[in-house]
Specification:
By secondary structure, this protein is an all-alpha fold. It is built from eleven helices and no strands.
């Protein structure tokens, strides 16, 4: 118990003192994951809208594929991206392996099925009359699509938060394609794994507190947004 208490105090000291190693890890983690979500989310939401509001051959198969791919382990995604970016792989000439770009690619592949599946569920649950009414009033398909997305905004935001939570906390993919290089590709989960294996718990606790604090912030913001939206209605 004394050791745990001491490690917790050291963790707080690292956070408050602005430890360079710690905050570099935090910066890398959020930079990579925010870029991944920023690229994946618009693509996933548009794809989910097409799956929810159009009918074409193979649509059910694509929905099933998205739901199935949500369960693919991060380490399998990491292995796939690693093989694609390695020197012997089809994209080996780009020399992206062990870079933040490779980590972004891996996290996009990891979160895209989750975003599509959750966004599809949110859009299907929305009132289809919003789409039909917007088209009847002369709105363009893009304007009508934006109207539907506004109606389903809380479900879509929840999907983005869930996807962000998955990629910022995953270890396998980031470790395989990023290489866990300090100041370059070492992020929060890979640093926690490394420091814990060394028996150094202070930095791991500090990084864990950052993840918990950010998760609390996101979910509190979503709850407040939902509450204010319900009040206006």
């Amino acid at each position: 118990m004394n050791e745990l208490h001491q490690a917790a105090l050291e963790a707080l000291h690292l956070l408050i003192s602005g430890d360079r190693n710690l905050w570099s890890i935090i910066a890398v983690s959020f930079s990579v994951s925010l870029r991944a979500i920023g690229i994946a989310a618009p693509v996933a939401v548009v794809a989910a809208f097409i799956l929810a509001y159009t009918d074409f051959p193979g649509r059910r198969s694509l929905v099933l594929a998205a739901n199935t791919l949500m369960a693919v382990p991060a380490v399998v995604v990491g292995l796939t991206v690693y093989l694609m970016l390695s020197r012997a792989g089809p994209a080996g000439d780009l020399r992206l392996l062990f870079t933040q770009t490779a980590m972004v690619i891996g996290q996009i592949v990891l979160c895209l099925p989750l975003l599509v599946a959750m966004a599809h569920a949110a859009l299907q649950a929305s009132d289809r009359r919003a789409w039909e009414t917007a088209l009847t009033l002369g709105a363009s398909p893009i304007r009508a699509m934006l109207t539907v997305m506004h109606e389903a905004r809380f479900g879509l935001l929840a999907a983005v938060i869930a996807a962000f939570g998955r990629v910022i906390a995953e270890v396998g993919c980031s470790m395989m394609v990023g290489g866990n290089i300090l100041y370059h590709t070492r992020n929060i989960p890979t640093a926690i794994a490394l420091e814990t294996s060394r028996g150094a718990f202070a930095q791991g606790i500090a990084l864990g507190l950052v993840l918990l604090g950010f998760a609390l912030f996101l979910n509190t913001a979503l709850g407040l947004a939902q509450g204010s939206g319900a009040a206006r209605q």
